[in-house]
Amino acid sequence: MQPILVHTGIVEKGQQKGRTLGFPTANLPYKDLELTGAYAGRVAIEEKVFAAVIYANKPRELIEAHLFDVDMDLYGKTITVELLEKVGESKKFTNLEALKSHIAESAGKARNYFIA
């Protein structure tokens, strides 16, 4: 499948909201981002490729990638993200529990994308 979007950038420190919810993300700035929502995708770091759920945040011009089953410090590293298939919409949430539930649902759909 052709990627919907491919972007290479340097991981920057974000607000760390995802980390506090159990979904740490690698944050890449992206000027003029037109996409929004959650996507199943891949993240390439040096010679390795990891499955991920990737959130395109149009208002903040930011791509946030949560790599599955990976625990490493990515700040300052150059990574490439590929968005493959949309698995969730962008929404506003009234509380952190609702946000965490939505992230978990999108992550589950992204994992299933790679299983199928």
Give structural notes:
- The protein is an alpha+beta fold.
- Helix content is 21%, strand content 40%.
- It has helices spanning 17-20, 96-115; strands at 5-10, 26-29, 37-45, 48-57, 62-67, 78-88.
- The protein has a six-stranded antiparallel β-sheet with strand order 1-6-3-4-5-2, covered by helices on one side.
- The protein starts with a strand and ends with a helix.
- The model has no long low-confidence stretch (mean pLDDT 91).
Which key phrases capture this entry?
116 residues; alpha+beta; 6-stranded antiparallel beta sheet; 2 helices; 6 strands; 21% helix
Break the fold down into its secondary structure elements and pairings:
Elements lengths: L4 E6 L6 H4 L5 E4 L7 E9 L2 E10 L4 E6 L10 E11 L7 H20 L1
Antiparallel strand pairs: 1-6, 2-5, 3-4, 3-6, 4-5
Helix percent reads 10-25%
Strand order of the largest sheet: 1-6-3-4-5-2
Low-confidence stretches: none
Main sheet record: 6 strands, antiparallel
From N to C, what is the helix and strand string? Answer: EHEEEEEH
Radius of gyration (Å): 13 Å
Beta-strand segment tally: 6
How much of the sequence is in beta strands? Answer: 35-45%
Which class do the helix and strand fractions yield? Answer: alpha+beta
Distance between the termini: 13 Å
Helical segment count = 2
From the spread of the alpha carbons, the general shape counts as: globular
Average pLDDT level? 91
